[in-house]
Structure formats: C-alpha cells, structure tokens
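hey so u asked for the seq, here:
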Amino acid sequence: MADTVTNILLAGVGGQGILLASEVLSEVMMLAGYDVKKNEIHGMSQRGGSVVSHVRFGKKVYSPIIPEGEADILFGFELLETYRYLPLLAEHGSVIVNRLKLMPPSVAIGQQNYPQDLEGHIARQVDKSVIVDGLELALQAGDARTVNTVLLGALSNMLNVDMQLWTEALRKMVPQKTLEQNLKAFELGRASSATGLPK
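ran it, structure tokens below
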C-alpha cells in the first residue's frame, strides 16, 4: 500500500444524500484496508444549504481536512456547488458531477442569475471530467432517491477497489427495503462512466 493519501471532496446541497455517500465511500475504503478520515461541513439549512464532505484515505491519514488545491477528485452532486469548489482541486485532479441545477435562494428570489453553461466551464477547466445524469439513471433503477448511489457507481471507476467491497458496504449501509434499487443504481452509474484511476 502506497504512502500517498487520496483526497475526495464531495460537494452539493442538503437533502441530496451526500452524507450517506461519504459514509459508504469511507466504509469501502476501510474494508479495503486503508486508514480513513472524514469530515462534513453543513450550510445554513439542513435541506437546500451547501454541504461539503472531505474523505481522505491512505496508509496513514492524520487530518480529515483536505488542504486547498489538493483534492484528487471533486465529487459533485450539483453543478453550481461543484463549480464553486474547483479551486480546491489538485492540478492533476478529476471531477465527477451530477447533471443537476438546484437554484440557490439568491437565484430563486431574483437577486442573482444561475450561471450559464456550467458543464462547459467545468469541462474546459478540468481535463478529466465526467458528467453523469444521476436522476435519469436513478429513475431507471426504480427510485429517484438513489441518485447518490448512481454517483457512487460512477466514482467507483476512478478508484482501484474490488467491486465486492462496494456491494458489501451498500448492503451494510443502505435501508434493506431499498437495497435492490440501490444496487441497480450503483451498476447503472458504474456503466455510465468508464474512466481510469486518477494519476
């Protein structure tokens, strides 16, 4: 196991299942034998406010906070929130982002406009960027609430971890009544994104 630490920054808004996704990701990496540290930062409101989660794993991790400019993967659940956190991405970093626009309060009340062509801005700034239509795939899986699991499936292509560990973590951490839909959502997300481990 290499001494390097891998840094994954999850960004989105409250109610998107980011915290569960970070817990599943952390569980997978612990099952893979890594030391894992995790930290969450919540916005003003539980639902609709900005939520960021830091997940770091390696042979030994001393701090749960990703230093600025050192995120290996920016794992975005909403386009604008992902774009906001691009400065934290390392030069060699990758982006996985959900094709979703959620209007922040300032846009909803007409004080600001939602930025145009965020997908294009992200693609131009980051060579290794993957855009996932999370909601469409979640609906294919049979449950719109599985968007976070779809995105985990897409992320799994960037991490050199045995598929069995992902399945084990999902079985342990998602509600039993939605397990079948979550497993299908994971597979659909994985199939939608065929990219390699970030260098």
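Confidence is low (pLDDT under 50) at residues 195-199. The domain at 6-102+121-190 is CATH 3.40.920.10 (Pyruvate-ferredoxin Oxidoreductase; domain 3).
lmk if thats what u needed
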